[in-house]
Amino acid sequence: MEGFSTRVYRKETAILQPIHYTSLHHPAQKWGGLTSATLRARKLSSQEKDLWTELRFIRDTFVDRGYPIHRIHQTMLKALHKPLWTTNSQHKESTCKLGTLAIRKSAPYIPEITIANQKNWERTLMENEIQAKVQFSFKPDTNLLHYFAPRYQEERDQKHVLLQTGVVYGVACVECQDNLKIHYIGETSRTLRERIYSHFYDKHNKSALRSHTENKPGSHHLPLQHSGQRTVGGGEED
After folding, report:
1. What SS3 class is residue 80?
2. Angle of helix 27-44 relative to helix 69-80, nearest 10 degrees?
């Protein structure tokens, strides 16, 4: 046996799940996934039978995702005739065609409106004799992550603060009548997370905060303490 044979290997649990045809993504993104999968099959399949097996698998997958079969055949046929590799000279030629100035814009893809917006940009540049080309990078419109992102961002910021060291922190008891007042101010060289843990969960630490929470809220107020030459409101420096 001479040489090696290669093909696309896919685990039994592997899933090829392209963008659904009804999704609000730009058509170039949807059909670009099919073109990329076809070119990948060509590059990795050294035997013709393996190539056609992979192409049938790709076709059936995109059919299950709602893509019209006739457009699938057209796109795959076009990809089968594309050159697999481009030389540096070909890359330079394609780059020069973009013009001396490239204006890159990112915008959500909204059917009809997005295309009209792109045409308005091109017409405006042409009317003002500006030698430039607009390159749009499209992204889908608002999705579910948009509504949950603020909460995730808040959690990430909170975790970042808890990992900081050398911070001055304040603690207010929300069960006290004057809950808007900072009752305890402290400074720590450890991470804020470790210091909070020592306040409330370390039994060997005689913390004023721990003593306050173990008693009836509002019946005890945290006294002012001094730490070195620094006056700290109800806290200590560790």
Report:
1. helix
2. 50
